[in-house]
Amino acid sequence: MFCSPDWGSGISSCVLRCRFSSMARVSRMRHLFCLAVCFLLVLPRTFVAPPWRGARQTMALASAASAYRPQIVRRALDAEALDASTVAVGAAVTAAFAFAAFQAFQGQRRSALKQELLSAVGGSERGADQTENSRIERLFAELEALNPTSEPLASAQLKGDWELLWTTSDSILGLGRPPFFRPQQDQPILQYLDPTGGVARNLEFTPLGPNRVDAEILPLGPEQREAFVSRLDDFLLFKQGAEESPGGTYLPQVEGLEKTTVGVRFKVFTLFGLLPIQAPDSATGILQVTYLDDDLRLSRGDRGNLFVLRKVSSEMSK
């Protein structure tokens, strides 16, 4: 049908033409309907199905359609739900793979840093040779950032004897002591920790015999930090000639301090394996575990000293 391009008159013209055309079609349909009825009346009844049968079939079809419609809707909703769940599962799987890849990358990075750190401290005479100190401290901090154990004090890995591989502590290295009081390079310096039992022990071997320090440890809460700041500055020969920062130089300012840090109260100093001396109440310290795995521990003391230790036994060495 052609409609005028003039939008005002064209629309009216189109409406009138459509109306006349519709009336003509309705008239023709009425004639055809009358002829069909007459034809059906004269046909033998055997050739014509009863009118109610068609109605029943129509009603049945309508009923089936209405009954089937909810199924279609349900299937559509199920399909949508399936699509949503599929997307969710896919997202979860993708996230899991991404997390696993990230963990694998971190594990590889951690392993590489660990080997590099162990190599660097290997020739340092436990820190007496300070040539590689800058590099070691950098590796130390990088490895701390990849700590796989968020709650070291609750980990079974922490309990046991740990050998000191490197430290920045002059007093532990004995650099200011006379040679026969210093720890022997061919003998280990050991630290035993059992946070569950509240027990700690430091052990070193000198030409005159072993020096041993027995202590109590307990998880350190923020309100207890000042009470355990190290005050061993003038006590016995362990500090003789050592140039160290005062206690409290480093105090961890982290949440969950009691999960990583212990307060240390020294009880008895045994010199050369023969002379036990009761420690005063001021003999205290703070030790934080900043990295822990199966065989490597990194720690910081409240004087700012760093410690690299390797696990040698799950029990206290004799």
Could you describe the 3D structure shown?
- The protein is of the alpha+beta class and 318 residues long.
- It has a domain at 150-313: Lipocalin (Beta Barrel), CATH 2.40.128.280.
- 39% of the residues lie in helices and 22% in strands.
- It has four helices and nine strands, in the order αααβαββββββββ.
- Strands 1-2-3-4-5-7-8-9 form an eight-stranded antiparallel β-barrel.
- Helix 2 packs antiparallel against helix 3.
- The radius of gyration is 44 Å and the shape is elongated.
- The model is unreliable at 1-26 and 37-55 (pLDDT under 50).
- It comes from Symbiodinium pilosum.
- It holds the Pfam family PAP_fibrillin.
- The chain crosses the membrane at residues 84-105.
- This is PAP4 protein.
Q: SSE layout and pairings?
A:
Blueprint (H helix, E strand, L loop, with lengths): L6 H36 L8 H72 L10 H12 L15 E8 L2 H4 L16 E5 L4 E8 L2 E11 L41 E11 L3 E4 L5 E9 L3 E6 L4 E8 L5
Antiparallel strand pairs: 1-2, 1-9, 2-3, 3-4, 4-5, 5-6, 5-7, 7-8, 8-9
Annotated CATH architecture of the domain at 150-313: Beta Barrel
Describe the sheet with the most strands: 8 strands, antiparallel, barrel
> Which geometry do the CA atoms define?
elongated
* CATH hierarchy class name of the domain at 150-313: Mainly Beta
